[in-house]
Amino acid sequence: MAGLTNKISVLLEQGKLPGEGWEDREIELFMAQLAAMDSNNFSGNCGVGEREGRVYSSLVARRNYNLGHGIGRSGDLVEVQPKAAGSSLINKLTNSMLLDIIKISGVPSVKDCFLVPMATGMALTLTMLALKKKRPEAKYVIWSRIDQKSCFKSILTAGFEPAIIELIKAGDELTTDLTAMRDAVTTLGPENILCVFSTTSCFAPRGPDDLPNIAKLCSQFQIPHITNNAYGLQSSKCMYLINEAARVGRMDLFIQSTDKNLMVPVGGAVIAGFDKQLVKEISQTYPGRASGSPSIDVFMTLLSMGVGGYKSLLAQRKALFSKLKKEMEALAVKYDVEVLETKNNTISIALTLNESGTDATNIGSMLFTRGVSGTRVVTGLENKSIEGVTFFGWGAHTDNCDKAYLTAAASVGMDEEDLRLFVKRVGKVFDKVYDDKENKEILSKKTSELML
């Protein structure tokens, strides 16, 4: 018990991720102490308000460690609730440890952050709505194309018109068209632009946007710059680009998912930036108080992980990415396909397919039925309309995709067994596809011979 008391004292004094992860029993004891600080758990408390943290189901109460008040107060996500001191402290410590983890991940210049109990898309919308107060005349968001619906819809939901910047090819990799972006700024007028919206983490063959040069452009024209860093927290490359962008130009805010980076249930995102006041203004844009569940999940996870556990996960992910690439290159040689060279994307890898259209998508279906999740098969032939805007070659991040491909990612938490099974099952699917193709060719030839 004395050891736990010391750990709690250090956490409260420093507000940083512990060096080594805590044991589960220590975390649970601490959670019980924090819950006892909320008024709904006071002995003899008499609650006569409309919201008193009452929980009917004992199962729900246990699931939430008897914490029922949520986080924030009306109109500010990071404000302390007087009758929920324990919940408020969890929220404060979570945000403080998240700031520490962002610095550890490669952005030491970050100034502030907070966890918002919404997934990345809605967190991006909240960010844009906050910026709208500073630029009330703005109508447009300059958006470097990425074929993910939530990114595009976050702009529309915030009430802005996307100015879509198509990507250009650099070898196999799709990258930012800085010339087109500059032309869009001058054509629309800087005063009419809410922000430039860039992306780091993405499916290959798209690479992360050229954040440093976008930051210089935004600095020149005094336009805010926000970045979707959904699962980039785990990538030293993505974090380097964010830090460098802040150093050489304008990088206002970057948003990342909690479930993709920290292995917690879906439902949270971290909004971070280089201006404390701006970050605070975004937290004050959220209407009302909010669910405390994402904060509880992240709080307990970070205490369990510690600096040592987190750095170990990052190192493991990076090593598995290299192994994944080598294994996919071996598959490419064996089955006469190609691994697309996307040196700036250090999470996702694309492998071309000899099939096209439905035959290509069938490979994705065959992999899924064999227990492989997370792969994406892109044909380059699909079109998608989102609220009146049509994207050609949807999924490929470009109108001009000349070959179908599948993608695989080495994300945090992946292990050697995942990699082994993936390679084995891809090989079996390819074998079946090519055997079936060969049998069809033989049957077709024999049919032709009989017809003669």
Task: Give an account of the 3D structure.
The chain has 452 residues and is α/β, with parallel strands linked by helices. It has 14 helices and 14 strands. The strands form 4 sheets. A 7-stranded mixed sheet has the order 1-9-8-7-6-2-3, with helices on both faces. A 3-stranded antiparallel sheet has the order 10-14-11, with helices on one face. A hairpin with a 2-residue loop joins strand 4 and strand 5 (173-175). Helix 7 runs parallel beside helix 8, helix 8 runs parallel beside helix 9 (236-248) and helix 12 (293-335) packs across helix 14 (416-451). The model has no long low-confidence stretch (mean pLDDT 92).
Short summary:
This protein is of the alpha/beta class. It has 14 helices and 14 strands.
